[in-house]
Amino acid sequence: MTALRAWPMLRFEITEDPSTGVDGQRYCHAPGLGLWRACTSANGDIVVTEDQLRTLAANAKGPESFAHRVEQLLGAAWDDALEPFRRAGDGAPVTVLHRVG
Asked: Which InterPro entries is this protein grouped with (predicted)?
């Protein structure tokens, strides 16, 4: 991850699926936003911990501050920045940029 962070112009999303007894992970990076990380549940939802919610409730200066911090915890800005690049999926056309062999 450190090697990828050294290239600030990159956009990327890396996910690790959860397995028995282990939460999944999601890492996102977008220019101007930096790196964001969260744990994910079995169905891919972002997991916000009890401690994160307690800290948020204790430090929010009002409803707008609270809502803004929830958006940060959920990675909303990274989702917005990366969404145009998520169009590929099963059955989508593939463009091979370079083939070895």
From this structure: DUF3145 (IPR021491)
**Cα(37)–Cα(54) distance, rounded to whole angstroms?**
19
**What are the percentages of helix, strand and coil residues in the chain, rounded to 5?**
35, 25, 40
Tell which residue, 44, 47, 13, 7, has the closest CA to residue 29: 13
Residue-wise pLDDT for 14-43, tens only, equals: 899 888 888 899 999 999 999 999 999 988
The phi, psi pair for 23, rounded to 5°, reads -70, 155
3-state SS of 15-58 is EECCECCECEEEEEEECCCEEEEEEECCCCCEECCHHHHHHHHH
Could you state, in order of their start, the residue ranges of all structural domains in the chain? 2-84
Predicted structure pTM score: 0.75
